[in-house]
Design goal:
This protein is 49% helix and 11% strand. It has three helices and two strands, in the order αββαα. It has a two-stranded antiparallel ribbon with strand order 1-2. β1 and β2 form a beta hairpin. α1 (2-18) runs antiparallel to α2 (38-55).
Length: 89
């Protein structure tokens, strides 16, 4: 558990610099934002998360990665968005 914390500390810093809130529980990562520009902040932080995993030579599973929003329009945009770092999934 301590080793995972050491590995994820740089990711936490990156996500905070972007303006989102990172959450970590064991090997589960969550990016959260509720600002006025939440969709843009979330997209940037989500891409940064995939990029960080890729830089560590890890493999993220796009089919097991979920996005959600309380706004109907944002949900549709996230559903239709092709994530660059996730191979367009």
């Amino acid at each position: 558990m301590t080793m995972i914390a050491f590995l994820l500390r740089p990711w936490i810093s990156v996500v905070k610099q972007i303006g989102a809130t990172p959450r970590v529980l064991a090997d589960d990562l969550m990016v959260w934002d509720d600002s006025a520009s939440q969709e843009e902040v979330f997209r940037t932080a989500y891409e940064a998360t995939f990029s960080y995993i890729k830089d560590m030579e890890g493999e993220a599973a796009p089919k097991k990665s979920y996005t959600f929003s309380s706004c109907r329009i944002t949900r549709q945009r996230l559903r239709d968005h092709g994530w660059q770092e996730a191979g367009g999934a």
